[in-house]
């Protein structure tokens, strides 16, 4: 494609597999550099606009990790003629994803240790729910929510039916708390715990991936570790795309 090529809105939309209104939205949002108009009033896109639109489509496609604003700043930097800044944002985003992966991997190692039968908590006496919440530094509502969602069953005091949390419950709760804090969904955790409760402690990482019947995954946390790996791969594509755009700027 020659640098003098003039492209229409429909050309960009067809190349990216999106509606023409999506391309117009990219332009209105400042994700493309200013687009000149022909004598007939039609937009005259260049190959650089196509690459900017390609970058936008790649960067802002759901899902993504954390705040969307740095990703918006990334594509706007490229549109404003500063692909170097866009590259910095891309590597910052890569670092963020890798931090999330580190947290997730640590949580999985904690899980595997517990599943192997190692004691994870020593409590001198059974605790009621408020004392248990303070012991774990979580809220009472969180403990009730996890129980309500089937993540654990808490034994009751036969004298008064109050919940009594012992070392067995605390070990399980520490695993649940760490997985939740590291981004895994309650559905994924429940599926994994059900597998453990059935006596199967193999492939627990796979058990944390909730299968869906449709291509649209409503909860990214249902496939958290897999999603992080996919996002890291996409970020590599983003970096490569910015690299191509930098080469195009030098060829002008």
Automatic annotation (TrEMBL):
<dbReference type="InterPro" id="IPR009061">
    <property type="entry name" value="DNA-bd_dom_put_sf"/>
</dbReference>
<keyword id="KW-0238">DNA-binding</keyword>
<dbReference type="InterPro" id="IPR047057">
    <property type="entry name" value="MerR_fam"/>
</dbReference>
<dbReference type="GO" id="GO:0003677">
    <property type="term" value="F:DNA binding"/>
</dbReference>
<dbReference type="Pfam" id="PF00376">
    <property type="entry name" value="MerR"/>
</dbReference>
<protein>
    <submittedName>
        <fullName>MerR family transcriptional regulator</fullName>
    </submittedName>
</protein>
<feature type="domain" description="HTH merR-type">
    <location>
        <begin position="126"/>
        <end position="195"/>
    </location>
</feature>
<dbReference type="InterPro" id="IPR000551">
    <property type="entry name" value="MerR-type_HTH_dom"/>
</dbReference>
<dbReference type="GO" id="GO:0003700">
    <property type="term" value="F:DNA-binding transcription factor activity"/>
</dbReference>
<dbReference type="Pfam" id="PF13411">
    <property type="entry name" value="MerR_1"/>
</dbReference>
<feature type="domain" description="HTH merR-type">
    <location>
        <begin position="6"/>
        <end position="46"/>
    </location>
</feature>
